[in-house]
């Protein structure tokens, strides 16, 4: 087994683990704000690591046709890394403006205090 294949397998396993844990969090979390946190874990910890593994494997293959495939995977990972926080923030703001209920044990709502 080559070192590149080992790195790819490790990244895929870590990415799959983060996606699994984040998916459980989406189901188990009590309110929309905590679910957004779990969704971010799925994308940043899971999907991006999987795309990086695909890129590493694609770029290091000896076939020239796989290099653009690896570069595209890196571009997708970068796009997800930039757009996911923006999307999560927009969803959280929309949920707050629509008065989505907070978890009963939430003690502080700093955005509510800021908007007064």
Sum this structure up briefly.
The protein has helices at 3-28, 32-60, 67-97, 110-115.
List strands and helices in order, with pairings.
Layout: H1 3-28, H2 32-60, H3 67-97, H4 110-115
Helix pairs in contact: 1-2, 2-3
Mean pLDDT: 88
* Overall shape: elongated
| CATH fold naming | Helix Hairpins
The count of strands amounts to 0
CATH architecture: Orthogonal Bundle
Strand content: under 5%
The domain tally reads 1
How far from one another are the termini? 60 Å
Q: Biggest β-sheet, characterized?
A: none
- The portion of residues assigned to helices is over 70%
Q: At the first level of CATH, what is the class?
A: Mainly Alpha
Summarize the helix and strand pattern as letters: HHHH
Low-confidence stretches: none
Query: Number of helical segments?
Result: 4
Radius of gyration: 18 Å
Structural class: mainly alpha
InterPro entries: PhaG_MnhG_YufB
Keywords: Membrane, Transmembrane, Transmembrane helix
Protein name: Cation:proton antiporter
Pfam families: PhaG_MnhG_YufB
Walkthrough of the structure:
Keywords: Membrane, Transmembrane, Transmembrane helix. The chain crosses the membrane at residues 6-27, 39-59, 71-92. Pfam families: PhaG_MnhG_YufB. The chain is mainly alpha-helical. The chain has one domain (3-115): Helix Hairpins (Orthogonal Bundle), CATH 1.10.287. It is 79% helix and 0% strand. The chain contains four helices and no strands. The protein has helices at residues 3-28, 32-60, 67-97, 110-115. It is elongated, with a radius of gyration of 18 Å.
């Amino acid at each position: 087994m080559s070192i590149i294949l080992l790195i790819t397998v490790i990244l895929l396993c870590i990415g799959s683990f983060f996606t699994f844990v984040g998916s459980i969090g989406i189901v188990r979390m009590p309110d929309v704000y905590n679910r957004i946190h779990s969704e971010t874990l799925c994308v940043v910890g899971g999907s991006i690591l999987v795309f990086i593994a695909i890129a590493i494997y694609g770029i290091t293959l000896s076939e020239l046709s796989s290099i653009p495939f690896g570069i595209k995977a890196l571009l997708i990972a970068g796009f997800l890394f930039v757009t996911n926080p923006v999307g999560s923030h927009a969803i959280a703001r929309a949920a707050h403006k629509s008065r989505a209920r907070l978890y009963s044990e939430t003690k502080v709502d700093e955005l509510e205090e800021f908007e007064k």
